[in-house]
Design a protein that fits this description.
There is one protein chain. 20% of the residues lie in helices and 18% in strands. The strands form eight sheets. It has a 24-stranded mixed beta sheet. The chain has a five-stranded parallel beta sheet with strand order 40-39-41-42-43, sandwiched between helices. Belongs to the Toll-like receptor family.
């Protein structure tokens, strides 16, 4: 009795283990078994695991029971409807589901209460289907739902009660449907809207009429907040003029600028709070050919009877703007940032940004500006901090060559660069009250020289960030920099430096300068090695990436005591002096990646007590005894943390000179390759002695194999010399026997083959065969004998077995046969193969001997049945007689 109960317990345990194994195959009713569904156990620390369901090729929703499911993916099938009772048999299992997708099906109907069992569902996707209508109770019970995607269906409306039940809904996507009219207030008023709705998408619709604004409640607790409202790709849209009156919107999206010409859209924004107004095509080309911003473009935003319109950011990207005329953004209360980048702007009116009281930043990068715009700020515009003019085609038609030094005239005329006049700064900023400009980006603009006119007034600007990278500058603008006393960040990357004495004192007036970039500046090495350029500065970050630096002197950073980050990666540095960082005790990050350093002394970093990150990857370290101190230092810093701070080291590799491969310097076994100095000579002597002994022993053990290969190569090279010179069609032998020497095959030849062919029964004609063990001439080299006898034999008879392919002598004989084929002395029909197939053996593979494969269909197989052997001998004699 106890044995029976123990057996049942074990059987039950095996069944439970099989069901809990991963991946879990869906079981239950026959419908689930027949469907193409699989289930993968999700990683979890809970006792009861959760699973992910993925199904393909479904036309109806399967039925039956399921284990607990967290993710159910039924997208990309052929489902046409979801019934209210589709999940009734697995209701308990789907109560754990948080992510459900029916995307990319053919759904036309979703019944009431279809999702009643999904009490924990947070994400539901019904996009890319053919839904025409939703019933009022479709989403009943989804109290935890946060994201609902109904994009790209055929919906003309959604029931009034549907979104009202979704108390935790945060994202709703209705884009790409067929709404002709959308009663915004019915769904998303302060009274009816889901309390947590933050993102609403109504993009990609035509002839949409958005009407019925919410209740007239605009203050304090009544105001409704949205993070995202998306109205991109809306064409011929009409909006209620007070649609957003009581809304506070962080990000409002329109597709392209022609939409803003429709008064109803901008009228709907009056008296609203919009932090960011985005007008772009998402990187795609705008449908209009060209656009011009005029003073009437944003007229509705400056509505005189409204004092509560706050648009803080306007972005107009990828919309093919060609011109910005005057007073475009006038009187837009709260506007702080304007982004006009990635367009085709050729001209900006000097008064385009007039009367924008709170403007702090302007981005006109990636356009076609051919000159620096003379921007006027005619009113109280004193907060401007950022202007980006990078990636333009700034070029002035009339340039005074006289302002360029004589030594640069020839270079200047060839590069056709830009002269950036100091009068532009004084006219555009200092003379018009813009006294708070802190950041200026004029990179990638082909600027070749800075004019010196009126530059003394630059001292009135608190400019902290200046980016002149990737222009055609031929020297550092020292005369400009000396008036920018507040400068903290200076980027001169991608330009050129002609070294002179003034370069050493380029930054002597900038005690607050903390970050300098000289990336891809090819002639900066001489100025760097003097040690004067950055001496006495507060500079904390220095960048010299890809600047063709070959060496750094020990005095290069002597005066940079505040330096915290140094990046000299991807140069041609071959080594560092030991005292190069003697005064840089505050240095925390050092990047030496991609140089040509072979040996690095760890004592170089002895003074860097605050070093946190060191990158010496992709250098040319050699795995030899000289690298052992660096290896030990790296190991100490990585693993021995007592009393010191651990340094974050990147992957460091060294190259093995013998194999030209790279290994991790920590994993490289230095003790196996390097000896201590005291035992170095003894080790070399012992090594030479052992090597000579090993060579002698090895040579003695393989002397016969070496002789064999020597004769084989010699026979291949001088094949014709090894053969008799007299050519005759009279053969001495009917066939040359090729078999494995001293083997069972050779015994078969003696007992069976020679008796049956040379001494045949009855009155059959005897045939003479060349058997190497019997017919080779004594004293003659074996290779030469084989070549002679093959030449005197009409056929080559191969005794094929399992060991034939692996034998070196038989491979040599076949090479001689193929050589005769190549010289047209024998044809493929001269090769006869007898296959000695033992009982239970599979067919031997002859891939390594393609000569045998030529005649594979003509092989003669030695029969195991004695009654079939007379027939075998007759076939063999006929083959030999041809």
């Amino acid at each position: 009795m106890y044995m029976c109960s123990d057996m049942y317990v074990r059987l039950l345990f095996l069944i439970v283990c099989a069901k809990l194994s991963s991946p879990y195959k869906v079981s239950g009713s026959p419908t689930w078994r027949s469907s193409n569904c699989s289930m993968l156990k999700l990683p979890s620390q809970d006792i009861n695991p959760l699973y992910k369901v993925r199904c393909f090729g479904l036309s109806v929703i399967p039925t039956g029971t399921l284990p607990p499911v967290e993710i159910m993916d039924l997208s990309g099938n052929s489902l046409t409807q979801i019934e209210s009772r589709s999940f009734q048999f697995c209701c308990a299992s789907v109560s754990y589901t948080t992510w459900l997708s029916f995307a990319n099906n053919f759904l036309t109907k979703v019944g009431n209460g279809s999702f009643d069992c999904f009490v924990s569902l947070k994400n539901l996707s019904l996009q890319l289907n053919s839904l025409v209508q939703l019933e009022a109770g479709t989403f009943h019970g989804l109290y935890s739902l946060e994201t609902l995607l109904l994009k790209s269906n055929l919906l003309k409306e959604i029931p009034y009660e549907s979104p009202k039940r979704l108390d935790n809904l945060e994202t709703l996507d209705l884009s790409g449907n067929s709404f002709n009219s959308f009663a915004f207030g019915d769904y998303f008023s302060q009274k009816n809207k889901p309390r947590s709705l933050k993102k609403l998408y109504l993009a990609d619709m035509d002839d949409l009429n958005i009407h019925k604004a919410p209740e007239s409640c605009c203050g304090g607790s009544c105001r409704t907040y949205y993070e995202v409202l998306d109205f991109r790709q809306l064409y011929n849209v009409k909006m209620d003029t007070e649609l957003f009156r009581c809304y506070h919107i962080d990000n409002l999206y329109f597709s392209e600028f022609p939409t803003l010409y429709e008064p109803s859209i901008l009228d709907a924004l009056r008296c609203s709070h919009v932090n960011n107004l985005h007008v772009n095509t998402g990187g795609e080309q705008a449908k209009s050919s060209s656009l011009v911003l005029t003073d009437a473009s944003f007229k509705s935003l400056t509505y005189q009877n409204c004092n509560e319109t706050f648009v803080r950011r306007i972005g107009l990207n990828f919309v093919r703007l060609v011109e910005v005329r005057k007073f475009v953004f006038s009187n837009i209360k709260g506007l702080e940032y304007i982004d006009l980048s990635k367009n085709q702007i050729h001209r900006v009116d000097p008064e385009a940004f007039a009367n924008v009281d709170n403007l702090r930043g302007i981005n006109i990068s990636h356009n076609y500006l051919q000159s620096v715009p003379m921007i006027k700020y005619t009113y109280n515009v004193t907060l401007i901090e950022y202007i980006d003019l990078s990636w333009n085609k700034i070029f002035q038609d009339k340039i005074s060559i006289g302002i360029v030094p004589k030594r640069f005239k020839s270079i200047y005329s060839q590069t056709k660069s830009v002269v950036l006049a100091g009068s532009w700064f004084t006219y555009a900023f200092a003379d018009y009250g813009v006294s708070a400009l802190e950041s200026l980006n004029i990179s990638h603009c082909k600027i070749g020289w800075f004019d010196l006119g009126h530059i003394s007034q630059l001292s009135a600007l608190p400019l902290r960030v200046m980016d002149v990278s990737y222009n055609n500058l031929l020297e550092i603008p020292i005369d400009w920099l000396k008036y920018l006393h507040h400068l903290e960040y200076f980027d001169f990357s991608g330009n050129h430096v002609v070294y002179n004495d003034e370069v050493d004192n380029a930054f002597k007036h900038h005690v607050n300068l903390t970050c300098i970039k000289f990336n891809q500046v090819l002639n900066i090495e001489q100025g760097l090695n003097t040690g004067i350029m950055f001496s006495g500065l507060m500079v904390k970050q220095l960048y010299f990436i890809r600047s063709n630096i070959r060496s750094i002197s020990s005095s290069a950073f002597t005066g940079s005591v505040h330096l915290r980050l140094l990046d000299v990666s991807y140069n041609k540095i071959t080594g560092l002096e030991k005292d190069i960082f003697q005064t840089n005790y505050l240095l925390e990050e050092l990047n030496l990646r991609g140089n040509q350093i072979r040996v690095l002394d760890p004592s170089t970093f002895s003074s860097l007590v605050n070093l946190r990150s060191l990158d010496i990857e992709n250098n040319r370290f050699l795995c030899n005894c000289d690298i052992i101190p660096l290896q030990q230092w790296i190991i100490d810093k990585l693993y021995l943390t007592v009393g010191t701070s651990r340094i974050l080291l990147r992957n460091v590799t060294c190259s093995l000179h013998s194999s030209r491969s790279y290994v991790d310097i920590i994993e490289w076994d230095s003790e196996a390759l390097c000896w201590k100095k005291a035992t170095k000579i003894v080790g070399i002597v012992l090594g030479c002695l052992l090597l000579s002994t090993a060579c002698a022993v090895f040579g003695f053990s393989v002397r016969f194999q070496a002789l064999f290969w020597y004769e084989m190569i010699k026979s291949k090279v001088s094949y014709h010399k090894a053969l008799p010179r007299n050519r005759s069609d009279v053969y001495e032998y009917q066939a040359y026997i090729s078999c494995v020497p001293d083997s069972v095959d050779e015994a078969w030849v003696v007992r069976q083959l020679l008796c049956a062919i040379e001494n045949p029964p009855y009155e059959l004609t005897p045939m003479k065969l060349c058997f190497p063990s019997r017919d080779f001439k004594p004293g003659c080299p074996k290779m030469v004998s084989a070549a002679n006898n093959l030449r005197l034999s009409k056929h080559a008879l191969v005794i094929l077995s399992k060991d034939y392919v692996a034998n070196s002598w038989t491979r040599f004989e076949l090479s001689m046969v193929s050589e005769m084929w190549r010289n047209s002395e024998r044809s493929a029909e001269s090769l006869i193969v007898v296959y000695l197939k033992r009982h239970g053996e599979s067919l031997v593979g002859v891939e390594r001997l393609p000569v045998l494969g030529v005649r594979r269909n003509a092989w003669l197989v030695w029969p195991t049945d004695v009654a079939d052997r007379p027939s075998f001998w007759m076939k063999l004699r006929r083959s030999l007689a041809k």
